Amino acid sequence: MPTAPDAAPAAAAAVEVHGLVKRYGGRAVVDHLDLTARAGAVTAVLGPNGAGKTTTIECCEGLRTPDDGTVRVLGLDPVADARTLRPRVGVMLQDGGLPNGARAGEVLRHVAAMYAAPRDVGELTERLGIDSFARTSVRRLSGGQRQRLALACAVVGRGQVVFLDEPSAGMDPQSRRAVWELIRELRADGVAVVLTTHLMDEAADLADHVHVVDHGQVIAAGTVSELLADGSPGTTTATCVRVEARPGLDVARLTAALEADTPPGHTPPGHPAPGHPPAEQARTPARETSGTPSEGRRWTVAEPEPGTYLAEGPVDPGSLATVATWLADAGSLARSVTTGGRTLEDVFLDLTGRHLR
Ligand SMILES: Nc1ncnc2c1ncn2[C@@H]1O[C@H](COP(=O)(O)OP(=O)(O)OP(=O)(O)O)[C@@H](O)[C@H]1O
């Protein structure tokens, strides 16, 4: 994508939100929220339903007026400078916002015609598979087809900033891959991509920077590897054993067995030393565990959901044998026992809780 002469430099903040407040009926659904998104990066905004993600994004898009705080997109005010920003910003709304009566192909060509130097519509329709339904009216499109069309409309104008509200929601795996490829390409072209998603694997794969929002506030922010606590991107060191088995097994007993089998001072490479959890891990709210590193223990074991057990500690082959013995003693045949690091979903659930909203 050609870079416009007035494009933001690669490291500049393309979107800056400070102290954003948005109230409905006296209730602050966005409550002093700060967010930054840079050019040439994918910024993911994660959060439970109703956390305030869409409201925040829509304030950045100039569709809602903040009650307090400042929002700047490419240094401009999205409401006061809406006309200047329109050709420089791409928007994919959560509900599509497409005209129902028009055919898909016509909608995309119409949107493309509003920009000075649009992308090649033919190339875009082919890569997002829009060809096959280009003559279908928007009202007859499936959910995933509508999403693909909305995404095409958001990127066709070569905006310097692109806001994508749940871009791959309802898409089949093939479409999702195509969307991810397109988003990576936008980043490589220097676009600031801001997206919301409920798909943790999507965020983990795509995002350079993540903001976790809850109750209208950012409760954690950082790169994915920072949020994953071990702070070392690409590490292959296992720090967690995950077991799927019968609910209600004795986690205290497993903790004791793992502690007994782990020699004092045993710290596999890449794993935090006992009593010294990484900074991000220290920030994570306490979970229901049977031991914490601060008590001098090396293992924390929890059953965060019935039948799912997470044992975090210095995993080695002996730890797996201990877990297998624990299961055998309980007479439980596990559906799965896996090792690895914590996932972004683990971190998200730790931060936002496991109850429904
Ligand atoms: N126009 C409105 N009038 C009143 N309340 C609103 C309005 N728009 C949003 N809200 C409320 O604001 C809160 C935040 O909504 P928002 O759509 O920003 O959440 P979200 O994080 O995007 O959720 P989801 O993941 O479900 O899309 C919700 O409680 C919602 O009901």
UniProtKB/TrEMBL annotation:
Keyword ATP-binding annotated: yes
Coarse class of the protein's main subcellular location: membrane
Signal sequence, start to end: none
PROSITE patterns, per database record: ABC_TRANSPORTER_1 (PS00211), ABC_TRANSPORTER_2 (PS50893)
Molecular function GO labels: ATP binding
Keyword Protease tagged: no
Family matches, as Gene3D superfamilies: P-loop containing nucleotide triphosphate hydrolases
Localization annotation: Cell membrane
Protein's membrane topology: Peripheral membrane protein
Pro residues bias spans: 265-277
SMART domains attached to this UniProt entry: AAA
Region Disordered, annotated ranges: 260-301
CDD domains per the UniProt record, alphabetical: ABC_DR_subfamily_A (cd03230)
Domain annotation ABC transporter: ranges: 15-240
Keywords: Antibiotic resistance, ATP-binding, Nucleotide-binding, Transport
UniProt-listed PANTHER family: ABC TRANSPORTER ATP-BINDING PROTEIN (PTHR42711)
Protein name: ABC transporter ATP-binding protein
Species of origin: Myceligenerans indicum
